[in-house]
Amino acid sequence: MATTKKPKTVASPIDERETFVSLQKTFADSESSTEEKLKVLYDLQNADNEIEKLVQLRGELPAEVAALEAEVAGCNERIASLEQIIAQYNANIASMNEDIVSLDAEIEKYRQQLENISNSREFDSINKELENLGILRKIDEKKIDESREAISDNKATIQRVNEKLDILGIDLEAKKEELAVIVESTAKEEKALVKTRDDLAAKLDERTLSAYNRIRASVHNHLAVVTVYNGDSCGGCFNTITPQRLIDIASGKKLVICEHCGRIIVATPDSAE
Ligand SMILES: [Zn+2]
Question: Which of 54, 221, 229, 235 has the fewest CB atoms nearer than 10 Å to its CB?
Fold first, then answer.
């Protein structure tokens, strides 16, 4: 079950107490015997442990694949935005070219007028116009050159990003394949374990199951159900268990929660099982 809690946080026993009180009540009210439930919880914990071992086989691969995929997506976004910039420069060039065509038409018109002028004032004024139009034309040409340069810079960047994408793609494919091989090799086993787990979980009432999941999520080793360690200690936190509690655990008929770490402590099931 997914958890948002930080792995190393050990839940405060006092906060969890409320849950335990209701949990203990649920156990008392329940139709199925406490003994049965404790057995189910123990088996459930074992199934979860096995599933976790399989997941751990995948190691860092899933995270690495996700990171590579994010990097690839980032590169593709970068390329898309660079292409947009290039398109804008091309649109600018097209509009400058249109501008030059109309400037040329105007220049041509003034040049023809120059051929039929009657006085020097007119001559000066037309030449002034021609000079201005020439300047505007030069500005357009300069802008076109600058746009072309920017386009070629952006294209070079796209090429670099594409080269990076090629390398990332090879890396990603390799990691994906590696992960797929591991997942496939354990898929059958995992499916069976998940089914066992789900079947066991279905035997528990909602409250007990949610308490189990909560304890599991709150302890760093994900063990919600532990056995007695070394005769008198909690198998989760290794704190000493009081003699009365040890008797309760051994009876197998009472739900015992470690007062130090909040884990459920059960007797080790008979080896005959
Ligand atoms: Zn403990």
Answer: 221
